[in-house]
Amino acid sequence: MYIFLGNFSCLEICYVTTTVPNMLANFLSISKSISFVSCFVQFYFFFSFGCDEGFYLCIMAFDRYLAICRPLHYPRIMTKELCTGLAIFGWSCGLILFLTPVVVISQLPYCGPNIIDHFVCDPVPLMMLSCSEDTTTQLIYSVFNAIFMIVTFLFVLCSYALVILVVLRMPSAASKRKAFSTCASHLAVVVLFFGSVMVMYVNPGSEHPMKMQKIVTLFYSVITPLCNPLIYSLRNKEMMAALRKIFRIE
């Protein structure tokens, strides 16, 4: 669990680093400009790492399933080789898969205006800048996002459905609490991640108000990564004791 959580934390650092430093620099800059190549490089890495996060949430759900539903077989199934393979898969999958939508969108005709009404190189405003409304590109991107989000989200849901069935059959109340405590932080992260992303990218051709697009993007690009360490830290006994001391909770 902690190996995957450590990789997930490093992935989130990379994910935030692709956009937040440039966004903060733009707040202090007068020109607020970015080159065409830099924009698509940011686009590629930001959404590749975001895609990797989705796969890592699936891997972590699978790990929880094995630990709770197959505890005696866990050391035999989750070998060092499988753990390493899953870690590599989680890092590489998004970087490979997201090449296609980035290349497709970069080939659209851009003849002006060249002003992105956003604080990141987001695919929706990028496609809006194209001289022609390419419904095929929008469809490809929409189908890609829908398949990725639905498959990964259903995998997580199925894993936790099996976990809940096993937990409910546990005779000990202490065992149930321990099992739910193990899963609660991961489930909270899953809801934050998939909830905000699905609002924006399952149907990029929809008429989301630009202000709403910025708010949702800010939520999953900054707020969610900020909350994730806090969510996982609440499982730490020393952290909980420190919080009780700060808020004077007995």
Give the helix tally.
11
**Structure class:** mainly alpha
> What's the name of the CATH homologous superfamily?
Rhodopsin 7-helix transmembrane proteins
Strand content: under 5%
Largest sheet: none
Could you name the ranges where pLDDT drops below 50 across 5 or more consecutive residues? none
Q: Spell the H/E element sequence.
A: HHHHHHHHHHH
What is the straight-line distance between the termini?
31 Å
CATH architecture verdict: Up-down Bundle
CATH class reads: Mainly Alpha
Report the CATH topology name: Rhopdopsin 7-helix transmembrane proteins
How many domains make up the 3D coordinates?
1
Overall pLDDT = 82
Helix content: over 70%
The dominant shape is globular
Backbone CA Rg: 20 Å
Count of DSSP strands: 0
Characteristic terms for this protein:
Rhopdopsin 7-helix transmembrane proteins, 250 residues, 0% strand, single chain, mainly alpha
What does this structure look like?
With about 250 residues, the chain is an all-alpha fold. The chain has one domain: Up-down Bundle (Rhopdopsin 7-helix transmembrane proteins). The chain is built from eleven helices and no strands. Helix 1 packs antiparallel against helix 10 and helix 3 runs parallel beside helix 8. The model has no long low-confidence stretch (mean pLDDT about 80).
